[in-house]
């Protein structure tokens, strides 16, 4: 027992709150820490990555449809010659003496009739080359020596069936999926916490009625409900996560109500009542801070659930609309192109699964950290 | 026991009624109608169709007619699959969905339960970590990723199983869809069983059994019964969802179940089909809630008298 | 006795128990030696955290997964420490058995009593199911459970706490063990039930002749039962020896402190003519139990039934009774925290017609301190915030700095270090937390404080400190106390007058001296007898009990 204190000091020792303890325990959990690093990396990549990939997410490369992923730049050496010949053919000319020098291509175009130099724009229109420059004209324009810059592009994840860069699209899709995940979760947590806390704290008939409504919503086919909401609100990105959030709050409401009921019986709430603290004071200072633990855990587990749900809706064609995209859309595309272009399924799946894994591990870690009796 | 079941059964009826009412008006409020095709129909044809399907009556009258038909067990004709009634569609699709769902549920209980128990008894061992990793994987990898991967590996690369199709429920055709359906359920059941089992193994009454020097078998038996409670309450809604079909699995494997009807009905404003599926799912959910209550009462003598 | 002591059947040497925790390794038992001879009763006493329970858990192989034992424990020459469970099962449940502190949770709620008692009989005794059931009836009869044939088919939740502990004893005795380990077997029970269980154990020991190892914090039990005693503190045995000698001439200062920990002194009566602070008439609290959705088949419980009560300034009124007697509900009813019928006057105001909002300003004068020092402090608030919460309501004009100053003063007043006001409740011991709860109640300078079992969850030595603090604070501020407790020793040290409650009614009332020297009602007398069996207070009483034990006749036949 610490007996009679020496002097009334104005300096007070800082205590370790339960939150600080939980944080320390969380940071001792290696899987959770690794997951936080992974999640942060994915989030940063999705936010800033599209600025660095040099491709726009909706830019179609007709010459690079379903190009497999490669660490080397496209066009690859063996692609240049046939591509140049194709362009020449469109100009009704033949390509001769094709030579690649660094980033430039030199060739000589020959034709029966004089070549219309405006047609050189075909080079620029191709995804492989830049604007062509005539070096030398001969035989009254029937023979042109041309220098064309080769445009080097990197498709680290390959391209999709429309020739769009999959890396950029995966990162952009990540923005959408993560945003929907977190925003929809925020919506459902807000509804759920308020609904559950009110129902639990007021108790009695109000509680009975409010929980009855939750029961009924539970028995409604969940998919039908989401589809109805999507149908109502249209396929709108913002309304979409509100719809998803509006469906997912039921569990949260039940959890918070249960917590509130048990906290209400705690002696510290009775003590506050005996002090004459108002209902809102009790809710604010005693009930809500003590329900936060399970809420946070549930939140980390809800984000992956929502991301999955969004993917599922996109898979059904009810989600995000082209050219905007999400991981679910990409995976759905990938599944259609699984023969011959398996990478289209693999890369978005990897990102999605890594994110979901990380969120689940963080959730498990948080649960252990906030409720240490499990160890 | 019997009054208990009866009371629960009766209390489900108003819930079902509310569900039917809410969904009926919800789908009617949605923009668009069942005959809004890409090329608009002639006004005359449209009018005829609306009269045939009684869509020209006031909404409240249609609601009354629908409730009346429903009480007689008549789900009405489909607006989209013009040649079928909803009853016929269900009669053909439901056995397929229930077969797949029941198999998946069975595997989930057997394999998930066994893995969870194993992990709980060997807490923090390699086996435990393996089960937990499998559990997380099963939860996080979406079934529309699992299904195509299974198709590539077993149908296209190895060629041992068909890519899809029902084929009158031949075992070869069942394997891949059932595995796809069961994997996430196995994962959840394993994780829940493990958590509940660890909790039970730490309880005072298991300590009593240990102090009495009883063999491991007795301890496992007692712990399993105690740990079954949370798993049972999870399995109720899960069973209802599994038995009423999965859109993804039925679409990817090309199976004629009822799972697809949710989406098709809602998208095509097939009012009767949507209402039919809503009623079907709600009945399954309420039924399995009842089953959970009964199982609970059988397992735990404390709830019987409440 | 002498021969038996020469060859102990259980011999513990250099036993260590350690636990791996988040904060490193916790050394719970630090190399203790201990002997138990055949037919002997040995007590291990100590306060919470002394390692007394972990010692026996280690030799039963029941340590938690993060704990491990080193050293030696031999039963009839066979080493127990380090045996795998299967090998340990040759002794557990047949030769060495154990009963636990928590009778409410120690039986499997999902199985019938008969099936549970049959388990050790089938496993160790080789009986068939039918034989085991028949033997279970005998065992239930042995532990004095009425109507044993019918009880076989009962589930644990249909039994009272005392009956469940009897079933546990029946299971432990099923195979006629050499050693019965009893880990605080009566702590969770009401005093009168406690006394009956102890009598049963004494009688069974006499009839069956096994050795008993008693783990307890209660010196009364030790004195009454144990032939030899080990005193444990912080994982070590600080003193051991024959019980009478140990009590007569304790060697170790800690043993002396334990023996002297009984709350001492009496309360000085309030000045004559002190004003009446609170006057309650015909207080009634009823709870309705509804079964079914439509609320038919109602069942009414009269938690408090027509109780009158008045308290003057500076006075303490004690309310005693067992669990379920309605004493806590009475305390909350006069504070108008539960809906109650009857008349409550505070000073010159009638509180009965006031709604919660109108009550709020009056709450300043009426405060409450709870039993559970762990549950009554909000875990996520600092001690300073907890203590000053009342000021937020009743003196909202105060600035944060002023509140901080008041928090420091309040903590000082309850003899806590004021610099700890930014710490959190979980960083304090049980006794310190109870001081915090008292500080929270007193910061508003109330006139009346309801103390609901404020010392029951604390170790004896801490209890007497809290009792002294409460007395001093009362003296300083002229507080009126309503002191609710089942612990008669504490009530006597603190109260001017006493109400004895049973099943919602006051069965006896009087001054402290009257109740303790001339109890009129049978129930009061029973309560006294049970309480002071297990108390070190009255040596003449203890002597009487010991002689009763020596004669092997428990003085109260069970039930």
CATH superfamily of the domain at 91-257 in chain B: MetI-like
Biggest interface, residues from each chain: A-C, 39 and 59 residues
Indicate the overall shape of chain C.
globular
Query: N- to C-terminal separation of chain B?
Result: 10 Å
CATH class of the domain at 91-257 in chain B: Mainly Alpha
Could you explain the architecture of this structure?
The complex is a heterotrimer of chains A (375), B (306) and C (559). Chain A is of the alpha+beta class and 375 residues long. Chain A folds into 2 domains: 33-54 and 158-370, MetI-like fold (Orthogonal Bundle), CATH 1.10.3720.10; 77-149, 2-Layer Sandwich (Gyrase A, domain 2), CATH 3.30.1360. Chain A is built from 12 helices and 4 strands, in the order αααββαββαααααααα. Chain A has helices spanning 18-28, 30-52, 77-90, 121-125, 166-202, 204-219, 222-233, 237-264, 267-274, 279-315, 327-336, 343-370; strands at 94-101, 104-110, 133-138, 143-149. Chain A has a 4-stranded antiparallel beta sheet with strand order 1-2-4-3, covered by helices on one side. In chain A, strand 1 and strand 2 (104-110) form a beta hairpin. The longest helix of chain A has 37 residues, at 166-202. Chain A is elongated. The two termini of chain A are 29 Å apart. In chain A, 45% of the residues are buried. With 306 residues, chain B is mainly α. Chain B has a domain at 91-257: Orthogonal Bundle (MetI-like fold). In chain B, 75% of the residues lie in helices and 0% in strands. Chain B has 12 helices and no strands. Chain B is flat, with a radius of gyration of 24 Å. The relative contact order of chain B is 0.15. Chain C is of the alpha/beta class and 559 residues long. A 6-stranded mixed beta sheet of chain C has the order 6-7-8-3-9-10, with helices on both faces. In chain C, helix 9 runs parallel beside helix 22 (539-550) and helix 16 (400-413) crosses helix 17. Chain C starts with a helix and ends in a 9-residue tail after the last helix. Classes of the chains: A alpha+beta (375), B mainly alpha (306), C alpha/beta (559). Chains in contact: A-B, A-C, B-C. The A-B interface holds A 215-216, 218-221, 223-224, 227-228, 231-232, 304, 308, 311-312, 315-316, 318, 331-332, 334-335, 338-339, 342, 345, 349, 352-353, 356-357, 360-361, 374 and B 15-16, 18-19, 22-23, 26-27, 29-32, 136-137, 139-142, 144-145, 147-149, 151-152, 156, 198, 237, 244, 247-248, 252, 262-263, 266-267, 274, 277-278, 281-282, 285-286.
């Amino acid at each position: 027992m610490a007996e009679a204190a020496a002097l009334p000091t104005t300096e007070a020792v800082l205590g370790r709150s339960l939150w600080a303890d939980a944080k320390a325990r969380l940071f001792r959990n290696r899987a959770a820490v690794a997951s936080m690093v992974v999640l942060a990396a994915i989030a940063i990549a999705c936010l800033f990555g599209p600025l660095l990939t040099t491709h726009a997410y909706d830019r179609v490369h007709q010459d690079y449809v379903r190009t497999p992923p490669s660490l080397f730049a496209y066009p690859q050496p063996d692609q240049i010659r046939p591509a140049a010949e194709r362009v020449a053919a469109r100009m009704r000319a033949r390509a001769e003496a094709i030579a690649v020098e660094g980033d430039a291509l030199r060739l000589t175009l020959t034709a029966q009739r004089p070549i219309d130099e405006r047609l050189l724009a075909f080079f620029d229109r191709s995804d492989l080359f830049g604007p062509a420059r005539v070096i030398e004209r001969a035989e009254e324009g029937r023979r042109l020596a041309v220098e064309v810059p080769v445009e080097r592009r990197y498709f680290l994840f390959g391209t999709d069936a429309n020739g769009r860069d999959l890396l950029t699209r995966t990162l952009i899709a990540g923005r959408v999926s993560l945003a929907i995940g977190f925003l929809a979760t925020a919506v459902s947590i807000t509804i759920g916490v308020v609904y559950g806390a009110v129902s639990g704290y007021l108790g009695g008939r109000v509680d009975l009625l409010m929980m009855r409504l939750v029961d009924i919503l539970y028995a409604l086919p969940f998919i039908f409900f989401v589809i109805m909401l999507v149908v109502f609100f249209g396929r709108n990105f913002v309304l979409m996560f509100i719809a998803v959030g509006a469906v997912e709050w039921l569990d949260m409401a039940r959890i918070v109500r249960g917590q509130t009921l048990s906290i209400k019986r705690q002696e510290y709430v009775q003590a506050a009542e005996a002090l004459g603290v108002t209902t809102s004071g009790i809710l604010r200072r005693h009930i809500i801070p003590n329900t936060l633990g399970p809420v946070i855990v549930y939140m980390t587990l809800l984000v992956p659930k929502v991301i999955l749900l969004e993917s599922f809706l996109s898979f059904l064609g009810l989600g995000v609309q082209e050219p905007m995209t999400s991981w679910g859309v990409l995976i759905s595309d990938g599944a259609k192109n699984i023969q011959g272009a398996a990478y289209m399924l693999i890369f978005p799946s990897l990102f999605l699964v890594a994110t979901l894994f990380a969120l689940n591990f963080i959730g498990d870690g948080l649960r252990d950290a906030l409720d240490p009796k499990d160890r | 026991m019997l009054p208990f079941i009866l009371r629960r059964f009766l209390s489900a009826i108003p819930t079902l009624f509310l569900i039917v009412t809410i969904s009926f008006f919800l789908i009617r409020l949605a923009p668009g109608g069942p005959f809004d095709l890409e090329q608009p129909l002639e006004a005359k044809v449209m009018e005829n169709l609306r009269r045939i399907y009684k869509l020209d009556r006031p909404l409240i009258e249609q609601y009354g007619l629908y409730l009346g038909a429903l009480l007689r067990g008549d789900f009405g004709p489909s607006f989209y699959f013009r040649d079928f009634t909803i009853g016929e569609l269900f009669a053909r699709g439901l056995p397929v969905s229930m077969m797949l769902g029941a198999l998946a549920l069975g595997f989930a209980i057997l394999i998930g339960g066994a893995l969870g128990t194993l992990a709980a008894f060997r807490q923090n061992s390699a086996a435990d970590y393996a089960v937990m990793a499998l559990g997380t994987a099963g939860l996080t990898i979406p079934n529309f990723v699992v299904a195509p991967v299974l198709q590539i590996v077993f149908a296209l690369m190895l060629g041992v199983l068909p890519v899809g199709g029902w084929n009158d429920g031949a075992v070869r055709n069942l394997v891949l869809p059932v595995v796809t359906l069961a994997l996430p359920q196995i994962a959840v059941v394993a994780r829940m069983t493990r958590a509940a089992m660890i909790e039970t193994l730490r309880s005072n009454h298991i300590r009593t059994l240990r102090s009495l020097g009883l063999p491991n078998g007795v301890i496992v038996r007692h712990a399993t019964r105690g740990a079954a409670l949370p798993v049972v309450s999870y399995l109720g809604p899960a069973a209802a969802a599994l038995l009423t079909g999965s859109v993804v699995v039925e679409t990817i494997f090309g199976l004629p179940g009822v799972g697809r009807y949710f989406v098709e009905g809602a998208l095509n404003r097939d009012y009767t089909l949507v209402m039919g599926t809503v009623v079907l799912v709600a009945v399954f959910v309420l039924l399995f809630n009842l089953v959970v209550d009964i199982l609970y009462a059988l397992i735990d003598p404390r709830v019987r008298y409440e | 006795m002498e021969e038996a002591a020469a060859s102990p059947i259980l011999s513990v040497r250099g036993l260590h128990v350690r636990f791996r925790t988040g904060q490193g390794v916790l050394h719970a038992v630090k190399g203790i030696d201990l002997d138990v001879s055949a037919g002997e009763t040995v007590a291990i006493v100590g306060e919470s955290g002394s390692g007394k329970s972990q010692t026996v858990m280690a030799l039963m192989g029941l340590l938690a997964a993060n704990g491990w034992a080193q050293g030696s424990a031999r039963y009839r020459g066979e080493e127990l420490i380090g045996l795998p469970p299967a090998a340990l099962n040759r002794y557990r449940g047949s030769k060495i058995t154990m009963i636990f502190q928590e009778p409410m949770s120690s039986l499997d709620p999902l199985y019938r009593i008969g099936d549970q008692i049959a388990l050790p009989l089938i496993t160790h005794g080789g009986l068939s199911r039918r034989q085991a059931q028949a033997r279970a009836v005998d065992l239930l009869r042995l532990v004095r459970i009425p109507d044993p044939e019918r009880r076989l088919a009962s589930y644990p939740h249909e039994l009272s706490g005392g009956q469940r502990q009897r079933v546990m004893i029946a299971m432990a005795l099923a195979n006629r063990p050499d050693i019965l380990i009893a880990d605080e077997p009566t702590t969770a029970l009401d005093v009168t039930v406690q006394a009956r269980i102890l009598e049963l154990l004494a009688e069974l020991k006499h009839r069956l002749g096994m050795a008993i190892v008693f783990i307890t914090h209660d010196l009364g039990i030790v004195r009454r039962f144990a032939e030899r005693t080990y005193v444990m503190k912080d994982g070590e045995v600080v003193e051991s020896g024959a019980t009478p000698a140990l009590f007569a001439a304790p060697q170790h200062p800690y043993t002396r402190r334990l023996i002297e920990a009984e709350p001492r002194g009496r309360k000085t009566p309030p000045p004559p003519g002190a004003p009446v602070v609170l006057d309650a008439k015909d207080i009634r609290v009823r709870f309705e139990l509804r079964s079914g959705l439509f609320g038919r088949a109602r069942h009414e419980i009269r938690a408090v039934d027509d109780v009158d009560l008045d308290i003057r300034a500076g006075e303490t009124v004690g309310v005693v009774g067992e669990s379920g007697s309605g004493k806590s509900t009475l305390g909350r009813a006069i504070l108008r925290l539960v809906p109650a019928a009857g008349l409550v006057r505070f000073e010159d105001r009638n509180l009965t017609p006031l709604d919660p909002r109108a009550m709020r300003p009056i709450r300043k004068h009426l405060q409450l301190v709870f039993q559970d020092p762990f549950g009554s402090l909000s875990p996520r608030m600092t001690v300073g915030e907890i203590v000053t919460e009342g000021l937020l309501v009743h003196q909202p004009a105060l600035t944060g700095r002023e509140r901080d100053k008041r928090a420091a003063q309040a903590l000082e007043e309850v003899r806590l270090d004021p610099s700890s006001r930014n710490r959190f409740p979980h960083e304090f011991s049980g006794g310190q937390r109870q001081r915090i709860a008292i500080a929270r109640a007193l910061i508003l300078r109330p006139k009346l404080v309801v103390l609901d079992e404020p010392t029951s969850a604390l170790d004896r030595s801490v209890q007497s400190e809290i009792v002294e603090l409460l007395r001093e604070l009362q003296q300083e501020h002229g507080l009126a106390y309503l002191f609710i407790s089942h612990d008669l020793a504490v009530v006597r040290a603190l109260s001017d007058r006493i109400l004895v409650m049973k099943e919602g009614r006051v069965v006896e009332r009087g001054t402290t001296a009257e109740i303790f020297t001339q109890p009129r009602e049978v129930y009061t007398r029973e309560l006294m007898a049970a309480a002071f069996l297990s108390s070190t207070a009255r040596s003449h009483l203890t002597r009487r009990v010991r002689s009763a034990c020596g004669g092997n006749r428990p003085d109260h036949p069970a039930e």
